[in-house]
Specification:
Growth Hormone, Chain: A; MFS_dom; MFS transporter; mainly alpha; 2 domains; single chain; transmembrane helix; 21 helices; 462 residues
Amino acid sequence: MKIPNFRWFIITLVFFAAVLNYIDRQTLSALAPTIQKDLGLTDRDYGNIVNIFLIAYTISYLVSGRMVDKLGTRLGMAVFVAFWSVSNMLTAAAHGVRSMGFFRFMLGLGEAGVWPAASKSVSEWFPARERALAIGVYTMGSTVGATVAPYIVIPLAAFPFATHMPFVSNLLGEGAGWRMAFILTGLAGLLWLIPWMLVYRQPKESKHATEKELKLLADSNAEEAKSAGSVVNEAPWSWKQIFSSRVVWLLLLGRLITDPAWYFFQFWFPKFLHAERGLDQSQLTITWIVYAAAGVGSLAGGWLSGVLIKKRKIAPAASRMWIMLGCACVMPVSIIVVNVTGMTPTMGFTAIVIIAALAWLINISSLVVDTVPKSCLGTVFSIVAAGSTVGGIIMNTLVSAMVSPVASNPVGFLDRAVYAVFGPILRAVQGGGYTMWFWLMAFLHLAAWAMLYFGRIHKNAK
């Protein structure tokens, strides 16, 4: 059966994969107090488990894109969704810091693979003027997943299984509620595989794509092929070409420098509100504004660059750079966030910063699709995205030092390893408080934009 605009059905499936990805990721965060109590985990244990997840995520990024290119979008996406879903379900068997760390490591290996597969699906199904919007749609899935996760898993963890479903309580043992939360959220990912495997094909092989849609894609590909310096239809790059490409290194460094802003709002902003604005646990539900703003930024960033391409006839890569410049100029608003008093202005200015940060993220992600051959897009996208997680780890380490007392000493193998290498820098910022990070965050995007511009990323230079 032919379905008009079938590409939007495809991106809807990818959107729900991103929702499930972030629900599974945030399950541990949402249930951390309960799980820490049941398993006897300290805050240091929890922090190390989070970093273990990010390390696995980084490792996976380096190889998952190449796997997606080899397996194809359909099978590659399915393999990673199945792997992370099973890993999430197995987390229900954790009984201590080592087992929990192992299962979260496995989750990280699986979850990273969805993003290169998602970008590859966009390159296959969307014309240039719609790609940033499509990436914005599936990126919004991550913010939706992060938003709804607590409302799904906290009630599951609190459900009295011992009273109403004693067989489940007997099977899972102590902590049956949070263990069942991991099982059910992982199971949802396995169910998602059914429609994906049934409907996803290359456009020309799809039974659902109309002739009009196929012509739209063919015309877009032909226009790109004619554009000066276009590389999107070149043969696959070798590893040597990838790691010697100026485009790859510029994009990797751009993500490394700027993605820490978004990681901060995910991992540390609630703690900032608690420490600096005096909010208690129940009042932290106000952080839904963070994810709502992220959704707005994801869609707005993609839509605006599409308008520049369609209405102003600006080349795709150049349109991304114009939107990113606007976003970079907005980011210094973060200085206001840390200096105002009262929750209304704090959250209002925070929303502005997050909208700019996510609009930037959508467009720098679109630059990968614009400037890299489709045949090796997954590989390059995953290598570039590895810069994101490295940046997240650096941010996590810096902010942790900034908000820790000067007398605090590193505890745990990860902490000691980091301090052995970066000790002088961390000791210099230790005890500086959140204000130091907000000032640093204000200018990260401007620095990255200058690097990309003078590196001529918008000229598709290799």
